[in-house]
Amino acid sequence: DGGITQSPKYLFRKEGQNVTLSCEQNLNHDAMYWYRQDPGQGLRLIYYSQIVNDFQKGDIAEGYSVSREKKESFPLTVTSAQKNPTAFYLCASSRNLAGSNEQFFGPGTRLTVL
Amino acid sequence: GENVEQHPSTLSVQEGDSAVIKCTYSDSASNYFPWYKQELGKRPQLIIDIRSNVGEKKDQRIAVTLNKTAKHFSLHITETQPEDSAVYFCAASNPDSNYQLIWGAGTKLIIKP
């Protein structure tokens, strides 16, 4: 399951704190994605990036921010503006949007707000 | 934009029986349809996919069928085994949505011994 990694595996945050989730891939993929998954629910897109230095909001971007300074890295910051951040966060990447659409997922980060 | 509906939300089958999960999509331009399996606490992983120029694809005990006219596609699992228990997600992708995957809500498959 190499290729795309996320850290940390578990993260605890106090209310009012910003936290940053790491996502790194060595698959040479152009596109990267962040999803949020709540218990028993599906995948909701937070942000995605098709190319370095460019990213777009997904369906639930409010309270989150991202950067894409390097092709390999797409960190997600959960800000204090996100009122209910406790969830399982999944990062994914794909080769390029017009070619293979298969998305490869990282192992996820489980964020809990104390 | 594209919308993907998935049914049923939960499916319970006897071990050895077949399971069928169905998805419908709304955008006729969609041309790629993957199925992912997510075990409890793990990452989703691709198990099979199909493109719009093909009607059916098989890989051992799993198969996917696509009906472009009706805009639906289905996952078929035969001879189910305990390790098939998981949540299965369908998705659709098309050029109009920058090839993003639009996801179904998921089906929890329970294999009864």
SSE topology:
The complex is a heterodimer of chains A (114) and B (113).
Chain A: E1 4-7, E2 10-13, E3 19-25, E4 31-37, E5 43-51, E6 54-57, E7 64-66, E8 76-78, E9 87-94, E10 104-105, E11 109-113
Parallel strand pairs in A: 2-11
Antiparallel strand pairs in A: 1-3, 3-8, 4-5, 4-9, 5-6, 7-8, 9-10, 9-11
Chain B: E1 4-7, E2 10-14, E3 19-25, E4 32-38, E5 45-51, E6 56-59, E7 62-67, E8 72-77, E9 86-92, E10 102-103, E11 107-112
Parallel strand pairs in B: 2-11
Antiparallel strand pairs in B: 1-3, 3-8, 4-5, 4-9, 6-7, 7-8, 9-10, 9-11
Descriptive report:
- The complex is a heterodimer of chains A (about 110) and B (about 110).
- Chain A is mostly beta strands and about 110 residues long.
- Chain A has no helices and eleven strands.
- In chain A, the strands form two sheets. In chain A, strands 2, 4, 5, 6, 9, 10 and 11 form a seven-stranded mixed sheet that branches. Chain A has a four-stranded antiparallel sheet with strand order 1-3-8-7, with no helix packed on it.
- In chain A, strand 5 and strand 6 form a beta hairpin.
- In chain A, about 35% of the residues are buried.
- The model of chain A has no long low-confidence stretch (mean pLDDT about 90).
- With about 110 residues, chain B is mostly beta strands.
- Chain B is about 0% helix and about 55% strand.
- The model of chain B has no long low-confidence stretch (mean pLDDT about 95).
- At the A-B interface, strand 5 of A face strand 5 of B.
